[in-house]
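Each field is set out as follows.
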Amino acid sequence: MKRLKERDCYNLLRDECGFTHYGVRVVARKYMWSPRWRRALEKEKQQFKLDNAEEIEAIALRCLRPEPQDAGKAVLAIAWNNPKHPPAICWETCLEVVKTIGRVMEYDNEEKQTIRQTVDKLRKYEKKKMENRWTENLITAYLTIKGHLPPP
C-alpha cells in the first residue's frame, strides 16, 4: 500500500519542526484539511498509541483515584507541574491516560468529562503554542519549498 504524502508531511512537522501529534492535527485542520489528512492523522494516532502504550499505562496507574477530579489533577501534576516551563507530556498522551483511567475506574461519561476538563488547559496551551509556531517559523513557506504544499 502506498504511503500518503500527508503522512510524510506529518513526519516532517513532527521530526523537523517539533510539532506534537495534536499540534499537527490543529494546523492540518486549519491550513491543509482534506479527507486524506483525516486518514493520515488516524493512522498516525494509532501508531502513536502503540508507540506510547507503556508510558500511557504507567501514568494512568499512578493517577488512579476514586474521584475523577483528583485523577485529573494527578495527571496534570505529572504532565505539567510547573506552568512556567513547557509540559513534560504532550496533550495526546494525557488524553489517552484520561481514557485509560476512565475505562479502568469504570467512570460514567460525566466523570470522564470531569477528568478531561481538569487537564484541558494543557490542550489549550499546546494549541496556542503550535499555531504560533506555524506562523512565527514560516512553516507554510517551508512546506511549500519541501513540496508538501502548492505554491501560493
